[in-house]
Design goal:
The protein has 190 residues and is of the alpha+beta class. The protein is 34% helix and 22% strand. Strand 4 (130-140) and strand 5 form a beta hairpin.
Length: 190
């Protein structure tokens, strides 16, 4: 089994102090950066994912999002919920430059290829009670993708809060990962 995120680098959003129920993307981005070996800067007393959330909910982030993603803001999204904010706004602040890009052409097989080459992918999905939820693909066991999900295990309907090492079958990938079409969205390292 290939796994590109050490268990010690797994983060849960459930213990966040800033908007924990809306923190899946900042928390997943921390795991994404760690799993891809990208250093980032945090000189606050906040946990890394709370720090990312604080940056993404700042006045500057709102200004950036209104300018660059006006339709999403008018649709009610907050900056931390906008995929483009991570590679284009957040990583230049915390990493000193753009380290990821958002792609719209991922398939199960391309995720397997990326994971086998040592990458972690951040993506999002739609689950029973979660219309939108971000998580990382961190490994492959020869049949299933291995996830680091900051809310827990989707296979248990999120009753199990342990989200490190969760398995996702091909059919679950097709059913849950957004969009629910052949080609999926996700963040990849550059």
């Amino acid at each position: 089994m290939t796994c590109n995120l050490d268990k010690n680098d797994y983060y849960t959003q459930r213990n966040n102090s800033l908007y924990p129920s809306a923190a899946c993307m900042p928390t997943s981005y921390v795991m994404f950066l760690n799993g891809n070996g990208r250093n980032y800067f945090n000189d606050t007393n906040l946990s890394d994912d709370d720090y990312f959330m604080s940056l993404l909910r700042s006045d500057k982030a709102w200004e950036y999002a209104k300018k660059n993603y006006p339709d999403l803001i008018s649709d009610g999204y907050t900056p931390n919920e906008i995929h483009g904010m991570y590679g284009n706004y957040l990583s230049p602040i915390v990493c000193g430059g753009k380290v990821s890009r958002f792609v719209t052409d991922l398939t199960f097989n391309s995720c397997v290829e990326r994971v086998l080459s040592g990458q972690v992918i951040m993506t999002s999905g739609k689950f029973d009670k979660l219309e939108g939820h971000a998580f990382c693909i961190i490994g492959y066991d020869g049949t299933n993708l291995i996830l680091a999900d900051p809310w827990g295990n989707f296979n248990s309907g999120y009753k199990d809060s342990k989200g490190y090492g969760v398995k996702m079958t091909y059919s679950d990938f097709e059913k849950h990962v957004k969009p629910t079409a052949l080609k999926k969205w996700g963040h990849v390292i550059i």
